[in-house]
TrEMBL record:
Keywords: Amino-acid biosynthesis, Cysteine biosynthesis, Pyridoxal phosphate, Transferase
Domain Tryptophan synthase beta chain-like PALP: 41-361
Protein name: Similar to Saccharomyces cerevisiae YGR012W Putative cysteine synthase, localized to the mitochondrial outer membrane
Domain of life of the source: Eukaryota
Amino acid sequence: MTERNIDWKACVALGSVVTTIFTMYKLYKQDKKIPEAVMGVEQLIGNTPLVKIPSLSKHTNSEIFAKLELANPAGSAKDRVALNIILTAERKGLLIRGEPGWVFEGTSGSTGISIAMICNALGYRAHISLPDDTSLEKLALLESLGAVVNPVKPASIVDPDQYVNAAKKACNDMITKNGINAIFADQFENEANWRVHYETTGPEIYTQMNGEIDGFIAGCGTGGTITGVARYLKEKRGLNDCHVVLGDPQGSGFYHRINHGVMYDSVEKEGTRRRHQVDTIVEGVGLNRITANFAHGETRIDEAIRVSDEQAIKMAKYLSVNDGLFVGSSTAINSVVAVKLAKQLQLQGIENPRIVIIACDSGSRHLSKFWKIAKDIDREISLTEVMQD
């Protein structure tokens, strides 16, 4: 009788083990599910991976994750924006699939690349105006994608020849003179920008983090990413304790705007700037004016933290050497901010803060400027050295 009881218990135990192994196998297969085929490259946009950054997490006793927007097919978060702007224009009848059409934009690079790729996929043409000191690889990418490229001298937004204004004028000329369907994407003011991050990027981050997010960090160029995600997390999901931080490069006015209510920086003084827009080597983030996209979610941003060019350059090299993450300048800024925010949240009583940063694009788009300097940083650099002001 005892032997039979022992055999019965052993069978139950064995059955439990088999069931557990089978369940884990099924979960593993689900996690490793091969993506289904899609009908066009534009359908690959979004649903980007989220990866933990081991070195930063370890040294800050926190969990720091990067939302890899660089995994989009054209290589940046701007893929979402470009696609939504074009689809919105189609819904309004401003662009018609199968008929000639043009998309004009003024950009420092990444949005133009996204627009060019999506235009090719959907049968349109792209015309991109950008500062003539934009990195050479971005210019080469635009030309390789077949976009019409119009480099202009960097200038203030009030200058009629500034790159955004140049794009708008070129669009109006196309419509007036040729009567062809054309739109000015207007990423800085177009609400399709922040809305796509509210509708896609924010929900993805929330799901990937199982709703447990103590901090969210993004840079601000147009303002669409940070305001869209922040509005989703706080308004839709009620994560009011999630500390939203804007990572700002030197020379940008957002730092003072968020922290002091004034859109001004000392480098705005006449004759003190190397560049007409923002005095930094960083591309894609930083501005000295309020955009419509920024205004739509400004109240949802809790703080801005400034990062120097030197800190960003060192952090880029540090991430490459220690984590295998080869990132662009804005991601490096966000990573510096993540280290600072982790310590800040711990002082507020959160023992193991969970923080998400946006990894907007790859370092391959910054080889001739940002990484030209970053590559020479000592590979043995410590995180303490990176964070030195």
